[in-house]
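Q: Joint fold for the lines below.
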Amino acid sequence: MKRLSLIFLVVFSMLLSACALNSSGDNESKDSGEKASTSAVKDAKGKSYKATDVSALPDKAKARKDTFIAGISAPGGVFLPYFYENGWDGNATTPIFAPLVDLDKDGKPVPILAESWETSKDQLTYTFHIRKNAKFSDGSPVTANDVAFTLKLLHDPAYNGYQDISLAAIKGGKEYKEGKAKTIEGIKAKDPQTIEITTDKVNAKALLILGGQVLSEKYYGKDYKYGKLDYLKDLYSKPLGAGPYVFSKYVPGQEIRYTANDKYYAGKPKTKNLIYKIIDKATSLQQFETGELDYAGFPADDDTVEQLKSLKFANIKVEPVNDYGLIYVNNTRPQFKDKEVRQALLYGLDRQKIVDVRFKGFGQVADIPVSPVSWAYNNQGVTEYKFDPKKAKKLLDKAGWKTGKSGIREKNGVQLKINYLTSDAEDAVIPIAKENYQDIGVKFEPDITDFNALVSKLTKKNYDFAAVSTSQILDPSDTVEELATKNPNNYMGYSNAKIDKLIQEGLGTLDITKRKEVYHELYKEFTQDPPYILIHYRQSARAISGQIEGLVPDNYTGIGSSLPNISIKK
Amino acid sequence: MKQYVLQRFIQMIIILFGTSFIIFFLFALLPGDYIDSNLSLTPQRAHELKALYGLDQPILQRYFTWLGNVFHGNLGFSLKHQESVVSLLNKYVWNSFIVALLALFFTWTIALLTGVFSAIKQYSLFDGLVTFFVFAAMSFPSFFISLLFIKWFGVDLKILPIGGMIDTGSETTGFAYILEVGKHMILPVAILTLLSVGSLTRYFRTGMLEVIRQDYIRTARAKGLKERTVIFKHTLKNAILPAITLLAFELPGLFSGAIIMEQIFNWPGVGRIQIESVSFRDYPVLMAFTLFLSSLTIIGNFLADVTYAAVDPRIRLK
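A: Joint structure:
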């Protein structure tokens, strides 16, 4: 999981195979009173099938008594959090490095290496209390200095990884980065087990950034000099952390091996060996079938699910994935500036059909910019854009787009044309949108390019429509921040004062109940004035070998949080 | 001869330079770079990273920096793998190489034998069967046939591993390790051979048939030479000449031809690295690998010309 890719992945088949370790949870996640009435949430619970005959397990799997094997897609061998560039390396480092705070299956923070934490009244200062028995795998204790060192490393001007520490706005961080200060003012180690971090700005997402994976100062900080991080490259392949497992061997392109860490604070994991085996999605099913894998994720479709069921030894879970697919609309183009036009384009597109074609019953039409598994999902009272060409025509007429001689709507001599960027040559949107939009007098022209070219056009706002999907949503703010007028990543050129205000409010408090209300309000406004066209929520299938117990993949950490509890039934 | 070789050598160096130039500029002109493909970066962070990676410099300057490094044996640093390109390629290239080399060996042996025999026995049952299988093998998509073989030999019969290079968690060393890797190589090598043996068989068969019809063969036969001498000494030797060029061209193909196969069989080869670096615009890897392939092509060409000139004096007389 962890920053699966920091990007919007579109085509990359990675996206589908990502489910290997990444996950969607079993969902009783809808806590609180909001009785989610819609089918969306009902579907979000997914389906699960129990293994009917565990004795059908292939001998290879039966012979394994103390090794658990999970599939992974393509790690690259940089086993150091904050420094890898490949999302799969993130999966590979999860067993080795434990964070202070992680997310539970509902996306809410839970303490790991930190026993607890407090935030000050003004929500600016975080105090983490580290567990007394938290130790790195070399036996040395995890201390406040290690946390301070980790944060300092991220502020180093030579740091070139994915973590943008400036988002946490630690007091004095900027000065340290610019070389104006020798230390970071806002980080104070009170005693070996207590660290106090002061920030300049309230940010609901800061807790996870500050409470990330902890690097040992003794091990990684030995040769640290300000502005020079090259020495760390030698340590990429020799990780040392405080996680449930200890790295033992990486066979490039083949597998990563781990052994249980007997110094782990919560006790030595039940299964002695862990292997992440590198698989290809074309043959992962066969790998599972022959007992090479104990756990793997698959794109959900009837064939795969049926085949998994027919194996009899697999526990199968078909559940929604924590992301969604959408079509960006360039709001800066005069024809899409008008909110009625955007609404019309939503009404005029048969999204149900697109979802059915693409996911064959294992997906649903997206209605708000968050996935149904998130704690923030609440679609009550939002405008659902059911396919309605009549309404679409009416709205376009109202907005002044009249049908011209060629059958295409025109306004001030400009035709209503949509150039649709996609990087998927078999994009199901193309034939359906072409037909749907023709019916309401809009011309739709697909433009198939590669992903990087698409991104390049997107960032220059040189497009009409562009197909993308989000990466895994860890916090509901992740997906809506880009809608803010001043957000540099607002590639839609969307601007709505009310949304701007709500985004700030959503980030400006650490209280989840309050945030829920704010996001619900935001979603309602979002559907009133849609910045883009939401398309789908999708599902994935996960198969767990029948002899494995204690493995509960969730939507935020994948199998990460289950690792210490996995056991093999004998 | 010496002069010819020298001439071709100098030509080769110039072409190599030209190629490196073109490669660099083509990649630099592609829209988007490694940083750009990360949409979630703030512009400020993106700018910082570009400066750290030197991506903000003008193309020409980047080219000369890169070229200078290449002369020092430094092919750059992979952005995605956070590792030097040389060590990265070194990790994977040999795996690709052994599979391709074995496949090449089998392809040529089988193609040579079946090609020659079906030419000798033209229109016989053997020839008919060979022709049939050649076409059948050529027309299968590699993807399909790989999955089919995996299903047959891996899933149903359980006699061969489905993929990878070693058994999961295996700790074998020495001879046992070689055996294990060998077992994993059977399917990929078999499929690669199957896919490429067809065209080569046809090539040899046609070559043989053409030479058999020549007057000097008829003369040889008329002189009363043994059929074996006629075929293997006179016909084959002449028919195989053009294959020298072909063999030299196989050099780059050794590394680039098996991408799909490597993917399906999880073979830790260089093909997957290449695909990845295209989609992530990992320029240093892309350029190093493309340069490597084009160098092989150019060197292969050079070798072909030289050997051809050695065996056929008419060429260097020009």
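Q: Anything notable?
A: Chain A has a mean pLDDT of 89. Chain A touches chain B through 53 residues (CB under 8 Å).
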